[in-house]
Amino acid sequence: MTHFAMRERGATIPAAGHVRHVRRRPVEGLLALVAFGVALLGFMAAPARGPRLAGPQLATAATARPLPPSLNAYGSLLAPPAQRVDPPLHQPLTSGMLFNVVTGRVLWARRPDRVLPIASLTKMMTALVVVADSRPSDRVLITPAAVHFTGSGVGLLPLGKRVSELALLYGLLLPSGNDAAIALAQHVAGTQAAFVAMMNARARQMNLRCTHFASVSGVVDRGNHSCAADLAVLARAVLDHPLLATIVASHSAILPFPIKGGKLFLYNNNPLLMSGYRGTDGLKTGFTTLAGQCLVATARRGPTWLGVVLLHSADTADEAQTLLNDGFARRS
User: Fold this and answer.
1) Catalytic member of 95, 152, 164, 176
2) Which of 63, 86, 164, 177 has its CA 20 to 30 A from that of 17?
3) Domain range 20-330, its CATH number among 3.40.1190.10, 3.20.20.60, 3.40.710.10, 1.20.1260.110
4) Nearest-5° angle of CA 102, CA 33, CA 304?
5) Which of the residues 123, 152, 217, 284 is marked catalytic?
């Protein structure tokens, strides 16, 4: 019998879960983007090696080298006017960013430091903490909490059995399984609350100043938020990990699994991968009623590797392609 994982669907969140939008003064906005430039400095020294980069650890405020003049303020973070991306977006976009994955250079931004709920983009951090504190060969116990999940899920996790952590990582990042997130969190930290504490500690280590997590999956909006600048840094950290980079670039996966038929079929929700957008190699989708459509996506063409972050988008597929097309055209 063939089993199909559920595609990501939104969990309706009551209005009480609304994250208060932080209105920052202009100076605070500049400082947030300076922090983004600091964190992305690590990319500047990463040489291209095969299909992906194996760059150094992300720089933090404590370890980064002095900022070069091109990264000293919001205005100079953007490309020079002659190369500046100015795509004609057809839909309203609350917040977003287009950036060069290799150099960290911001090519276009709209309110990149605005704090917003991020839905399942949360799972990028979930995956990073899991691979840092466990092994893909681990066998993960499926608990009642993992089976009785809400929102999107793999939907086929066998209660009381142990399953491959690798399969759960695919289930976490392709169909955006909240059940996989719960199982992995409990395996690594014992409880979901303890795992969330690990996620927030990692965010502080990475100097992600807009970011705070309240759940392991992103299904809860209240207190679970970030901004485009932070998410660009988080995306690069995912791409720096060879296993995670392989997973997020996968259109689909067929994995051994202790269910009837013995195989689990998983499909990626990334709209660029689904539509066959050329060069797409990641990364993660998200949706709740409050967060709206969210997307972090990356694509590579020749030596040019671009990433896009979209928060509360009207049409992630259209807006991501518009931004990436413009970015690639101006660098050809």
Assistant:
1) 176
2) 177
3) 3.40.710.10
4) 20
5) 123
What is the value of pTM for the model shown? Answer: 0.76
Options 95, 120, 152, 226, the catalytic residue:
120
Residue-level pLDDT at 93: 84
Cβ(232)–Cβ(309) below 8 Å: yes
Does residue 313 have an active-site annotation? no
Kindly tell me if the per-residue pLDDT of 196 is higher than 70.
Answer: yes
Q: 228-240 and 123-133 are packed helices; what angle lies between their axes, rounded to 10 degrees?
A: 40
**Distance (Å, rounded) from C-alpha 185 to C-alpha 181?**
6
pLDDT tens per residue, range 149-178: 988 989 989 999 999 999 999 999 999 999
Average pLDDT value for the chain: 79
Higher pLDDT, 39 or 235: 235
pLDDT in tens, 9-34: 333 222 333 333 333 444 344 444 44
